[in-house]
Amino acid sequence: MRHSGECHCGKVKVSFETMKEPAALGVRTCQCGFCKRRGARSVSDAEGEIIVEAAAGDIVRYRFALRTADFLFCRRCGVYCATVTGEGEEKRGSINTAGLAISAFARIEETPVRYDSETREERISRRRAMWTPVRFTDAALNASSFGPH
Asked: Which of 47, 131, 53 is nearest to 91 (CA)?
């Protein structure tokens, strides 16, 4: 199953491939100030794949708090599209279905989550286990490292 979406201006396109139905995946709503301000609705599947189509110059990265991942925004329209951590074949991520306007997840009941009690190591471990492998179509982004260094 492929779910595709894009930022408001269309410069950043994201495909999320999974064998699971949207209801089985669920939608997480992190309760941190960053995610709440953006109305983020996150989805990931450790057995799926995320493909990000964007030129390196079209993506802005933002890192905060424990600095364990890069939050990806469209440089032109400012939409928060995804979060990525890792490097090489170990890149893993989560998509923001609200920012990408992926309708298949719009009516899925949200599960509020809090991660503020996690240590840096616990956060990295959870993301490696639960997040989706990520691939970029732009060679510069595919070669980049994301998150902790």
From this structure: 131
